[in-house]
Design brief:
- The protein has 15 helices and 44 strands.
- By secondary structure, it is of the alpha+beta class.
- The protein folds into four domains: 217 residues, Galactose-binding lectin (Jelly Rolls, Sandwich), CATH 2.60.120; 154 residues, Jelly Rolls; 140 residues, Phosphorylase Kinase, domain 1 (2-Layer Sandwich), CATH 3.30.200.20; 251 residues, Transferase(Phosphotransferase) domain 1 (Transferase(Phosphotransferase), domain 1, Orthogonal Bundle).
- Strands 1, 2, 3, 8, 13, 16, 17, 18, 19, 20, 24, 27 and 30 form a 13-stranded mixed β-sheet that branches. It has a six-stranded mixed β-sheet with strand order 33-37-38-36-35-34, with helices on both faces.
- A hairpin with a 2-residue loop joins β2 and β3.
- α8 packs antiparallel against α10.
Length: 816
């Protein structure tokens, strides 16, 4: 039966393509070939410049090979020839229909005569946009296909190839094809807050992912715009959470909505929905995850079509992009008053930081009397914010990094720093040149002085500012003790105020500090490479007269440590504590995953988590941070460094550092948050000095209520508390292999927050059962918890805890 349905779907897709869009401009070129090549029913013409297009007179060679990609791929024949450029050259295509066009590029390196294309490094750009910068095919056994949607407003499109660093450029095949005018509108929605966005109509887009949810791979032959739609199976976070559904019904298109060109029929007639064996609990979302470079902005297009409901208003669900609620209580039939009607929604994600993971989820809403289910038919993720083209390129590498929408920064001076570091050690002094420093929210963007060393703001980032010692002395009243807001191993931290009123935090190394030049350099280097809203922003530095001073954005609410205990401020609520822990976990997760090897912080503690005016948590103090192990290694062998009370016991014993060492330290922080006491308190009796030993001792006695902050009594949902404690125990496991990743910790904390926010209107009087029962109505569940939803929270790590004795007092049932 299922095969029959799929056959009907394919027939519908074929019918859809029978009225396909016909492009006015349609250049398909098999580069380097003297003959034509047919792929998916399309004819790629041999690379013979003539009246249809031209190639500039730059030196180039027609290369050929008998080899093919290791694994058979679509269009393999196109990868057997290439045009090779030894200097800047370009293709020029006459354009008859101005507007959006596909620019598709095919790359597969091989060796031809003396030209080894596996080492080729080059740029590719149009007249307006750099499509590829410093491009090199990393995997020489697999071809690379790049797809762009560019706007052409002139009578021709010039596609230039610029070899770099005495290398060559090459291309195996290319397409320049016009697109329907309404495919990409000017409008979209932003998240946090949900708002309107304008400006998409003029930007170049690069396809990052295009998926057919719940259906097969869609080849260009089945798509009116010759797109490839991959299967979503490899991107599902938990495959058992979803089930494929199909329909043979005829699609109904409505004016102003999706069209047969928006996506092929097979995308809208197949979908993923919540798996029936799991949907009874309604405690999970269907989640897909993607690796992205967040130094660019992204257009996320989600395709929906209700193909299962029998009546209007039966399918209402929530949509999430990352941690943001993109659509609440979405009813696909409300606007069109019909079923089986394709719709799509566009969301724009602004540039924020470097490499990371984006999750896209759909899950049940809190609306009663509707099907507790969710669906998604298709997804497209397109990158934009590429740098503008540099028309003066002559084959030399030009620093084209930041466009008007790119949030990244170009890091310079790193090599100089390394060289000067060595010289400084030899000379016993600190010698510096200005370098680009991550600036986050640009708190120092107002700083300037008479010498002309201004701190320039660039798209939300800042250029490193080299403060003079006189400036910082004036800002801190000559480092007055009354201005001290913190003391650490590096030295004292002062609150300062610049001439224009900008408040800064000034960390000054003391002469007897055990952390010297190496830590000073590491801090600057780390914060120059990484930028994230949950990492503290470095504004600048000072190195005059052998001083080592770092200048940061000022965090009004100080450290998490001081806010938890030792403060006259009101106690933090449980929700506030969870949000702070989630923010810190996000910062650490970015450090661990934001580069190929990742960064291990090595000094995670409550004193290194800072809070801004909104209690937004930011991880700080990267002086001890270490680059993670190579892909073929499990750890970094290094001398033990960190803070007593937070050190991973396995790292301490074996001197083998891993990301799980940070996880252990973060587990201690979570325990501090729960208990509101220091990790180490020498003033207490011996058995209570170490928070971990103290808390685990009472856990074994089933007396956890004795260690939890009394201020939380009557305010905490016991299920949330149970999940939080379970997370702590996992983080504090004796061996790193038994601990979760920081990403897993993040999902657990988000789940604990969601449990706290979804307290039952009529809670059970049986608190023990209430803890165990996770089948509560919920607006969102962490994707990580999909496979955990039916687990008994009191099992495993919590098996020794008596729920009735420990947790019952933490939920105030009155008034709910």
């Amino acid at each position: 039966m299922e095969k029959c349905v799929l056959l009907a779907v394919f027939i519908l897709a074929t019918v859809s393509c029978s009225t396909a869009f016909t492009p006015v401009d349609n250049y398909l070129i098999d580069c380097g070939s003297s003959t034509n090549t047919t792929v998916d029913g399309r004819n790629f013409f041999g690379d013979n410049p003539g009246s249809s297009f031209s190639v500039s007179t730059g030196e180039n060679i027609l290369g050929t090979t008998s080899s093919s990609p290791v694994a058979p791929v679509a269009g393999s024949a196109l990868y057997r020839t290439a045009r090779i450029f030894t200097r800047t050259s370009s293709y020029t295509f006459p354009i008859k229909s101005k507007g959006r066009h596909w620019v598709r590029l095919y790359f597969f390196p091989f060796t031809y005569q003396t030209y080894d294309l596996t080492t080729a490094s080059f740029d590719v750009q149009t007249q307006d946009t750099v499509l590829l910068s410093n491009f090199r095919v990393q995997n020489t056994s697999s071809p690379v296909f790049k797809e762009y949607s560019v706007v052409v407003n002139s009578d021709s499109l010039v596609l230039s190839f610029v070899p770099l660093d005495n290398s060559v450029a090459f291309v195996n095949a290319m397409e320049v094809v016009s697109l329907p005018s309404g495919l990409i509108s000017d409008d979209a929605l932003t998240l946090n807050p949900l708002n309107s966005y304008k400006g998409l109509a003029s930007v170049a887009l690069e396809t990052s992912f295009r998926l057919n949810m719940g259906g097969p791979v869609v080849s260009p032959a089945t798509d009116s715009l010759q797109r490839t739609w991959a299967s979503d199976q490899d991107f599902l976070l938990h495959k058992n959470a979803a089930i494929n559904v199909t329909t043979s019904q005829i699609l109904t298109y409505h004016t102003g909505g999706a069209t047969p060109d928006t996506a092929p029929a097979i995308v809208y007639t197949t979908a993923q929905m919540m798996s029936p064996q799991n949907s009874a609990t309604n405690l999970f979302n269907i989640t897909w995850q993607f690796s992205l470079d967040f130094s660019y902005s992204y257009l996320v297009r989600m395709h929906f079509c209700d193909i299962t409901s029998k009546a209007l208003g039966q399918l209402i669900f929530n949509v999430y992009i990352g941690t943001s609620l993109a659509a609440s209580d979405l009813d696909l039939s409300a606007q069109t008053q019909s079923l089986v009607t394709p719709r799509y929604f566009d969301f724009v994600l602004p540039a924020t930081s470097g490499l990371g993971i984006l999750t896209v989820s759909v899950g049940p809403s809190g609306v009663a009397a509707v099907s507790q289910n969710a669906t998604l038919n298709g997804l497209e993720i397109m990158k934009f914010g590429m740098a503008p083209a540099n028309p003066s390129s002559k084959g030399q590498k030009i620093g084209i990094i930041v466009g008007s929408l790119v949030g990244g920064i170009f890091l310079i001076g790193i090599i100089t720093i390394i060289i000067l570091k060595c010289r400084a050690k030899q000379k016993g002094q600190h010698s510096w040149v200005p370098s680009y420093i991550n600036g986050g929210h640009g708190t120092g963007s107002k700083v300037s002085n008479a010498t002309g060393n201004t701190l320039t703001s660039v798209q939300g980032t800042t250029v490193g500012y080299r403060f003079t010692l006189a400036e910082l002395q004036e800002a801190t009243k000559n480092f007055d003790e009354a201005c001290v807001i913190g003391v650490g191993g590096f030295g004292k931290v002062y609150k300062g105020e610049c001439k224009d009123g900008t408040i800064i935090a000034v960390k000054r190394a003391n002469p007897g500090s055990q952390q010297g030049l190496k830590e000073f350099l590491t801090e600057i280097d780390t914060l120059s490479k990484f930028r994230h809203r949950h990492l503290v922003s470095l504004i600048g530095f000072c190195d005059e007269q052998s001083e080592m001073i770092l200048v940061y954005e000022y965090m009004v609410n100080g450290t998490l440590k001081s806010r938890l205990y030792g403060s006259s401020l009101p106690s933090l609520s449980w929700k506030q504590r969870l949000e702070i822990c989630i923010g810190a976990a996000r910062g650490l997760h970015y450090l661990h995953t934001g580069s190929a090897q990742g960064i291990i912080h090595r000094d995670v503690k409550s004193a290194n988590i800072l809070l801004d005016e909104n209690l937004l948590a930011k991880v700080s103090d990267f002086g001890l941070s270490k680059t993670g192990p190579d892909l073929d290694q499990t750890h970094v062998s290094t001398a033990v460094k960190g803070s007593f009370g937070y050190l991973d016991p396995e790292y301490f014993r074996r001197q083998q550092l891993t990301q799980k060492s940070d996880v252990y330290s973060f587990g201690v922080v979570l325990l501090e948050v729960l208990c509101a006491r220091p990790a180490i308190d020498p003033s207490l009796p011996r058995e209570r000095v170490n928070i971990v030993d103290w808390a685990l001792k009472y856990q074994k006695k089933e007396q956890l209520a004795k260690v939890i902050d009394p201020c939380l009594v009557g305010t905490v949902d016991p299920r949330s508390l149970g999940k939080f404690w379970e997370t702590i125990l996992r983080c504090l496991a004796e061996y790193g292999s038994e601990r979760p990743t920081i990403g897993d910790v993040l999902w657990n904390l988000e789940y604990a927050l969601q449990l706290q926010e979804s307290i039952l209107a009529e809670p059970s009087n049986d608190s023990e059962n209430h803890i165990i029962d996770l089948s509560v109505p919920t607006s969102r569940v962490s994707p990580y918890e999909t496979e955990m939803a039916n687990r008994n929270v009191a099992s495993d790590h919590l098996s020794a805890i008596s729920a009735s004795n420990v947790f019952s007092q933490f939920m105030n049932n009155e008034g709910r």
